[in-house]
Amino acid sequence: ATKVLRFTNSDGTDLTMNIDGFTFCNSTIARNVPGSEVFSAPAIDSTNGVIVAKGRFAAKGDNGNIMENLTLRFENGLLVDAKAEKGQEHLDKAISIDAGARRIGEIGIGTNPYLKQHVASILLSEKIGGSFHVALGDAYTMTDYMGDAVHVDNGNRSLLHWDITTMLIGKQGQIIADGVPIMADGLFLDPALDVLN
Predict the structure, then answer these.
(1) Which helix (H) or strand (E) holds 169?
(2) Backbone phi, psi, residue 125, to 5°
(3) C-alpha distance from residue 48 to each of 18, 43, 95, 129, 192 (Å)
(4) Do the beta carbons of residue 9 and residue 170 sit within 8 Å?
(5) Which end of the chain has fewer surrounding CB within 10 Å, N or C?
(6) Sign of CA pseudo-dihedral 122, 40, 48, 129
(7) Cβ neighbours of 53 (radius 10 Å)
(8) CA 147 centroid distance within chain
(9) In this structure, how many other beta carbons lie within 10 angstroms of the beta carbon of residue 87?
């Protein structure tokens, strides 16, 4: 039911996006190993602010070339500035594949409480409990997810789909839904979600 999501952490992340009308898929081990995450997409022109993603990253399809400590700045859905402390040339290559590579095609929230440490493996890092990730590039086009009707397609098209995970846990990280915190320091505040902590 949320319209505006905001993510913040002590590294300097402060990102807002509109998710009004989009649905989140509950990605469990039935479809994605390891489980789990929830994911959707933001309105294509709605993302504003900065992501400061600490750690090591490798863009899909770039032969495992490593980048470290990314800072990404968005204006009206477009990535307007991208810096890597190491591997800037690999970051530049990834976001230059096509025009869609500079927009967000997915927003995800990691929900696996047994994964806590950021690693270069995308499939592991995007599931970390107390993290969120954006995928630069292609949006999912599915209209059904495990039998449920979903709306996760914001229309962005790209040859790239690269998940970049940002830690919230241990970094005073928050998720704020329509002005109300639903996560503090990487932990869900709703007692019904305590199992995910």
Answers:
(1) none
(2) -65, -35
(3) 10, 11, 17, 24, 30
(4) no
(5) N
(6) negative
(7) 25
(8) 24
(9) 21
Q: Which amino acid is at 8?
A: T
| Omega within 30 of 0 (cis) for the link into 191 | no
Q: Output the tens digit of pLDDT for each of the chain's 197 residues.
A: 899 999 999 999 999 999 999 999 998 777 777 778 999 999 999 999 999 999 999 887 777 789 999 999 999 999 999 999 999 999 999 999 999 999 999 999 999 988 888 876 777 888 899 999 999 999 999 999 989 999 999 999 999 999 999 999 999 999 999 999 999 999 999 999 998 88
Q: Rounded to an integer, what distance in angstroms lies between the CA atom of residue 72 and that of residue 166?
A: 11
What does the block give as tokens for 145? 């997810």
What's the N-to-C CA distance of the chain in angstroms?
22
**How far is 33 from 17, CA to CA, in rounded Å?**
27
- Strands 66-75, 144-145: parallel, antiparallel or unpaired by DSSP? unpaired
What is the rounded distance in angstroms from the CA atom of residue 16 to the CA atom of residue 5?
6
0.90 exceeded by pTM: yes
Query: Which one, of 1, 37, 36, 7, lies nearest residue 19 by Cα?
Result: 1
Tokens at 136, concatenated: 């630069």
Q: Are 58 and 82 in contact (CB under 8 A)?
A: no
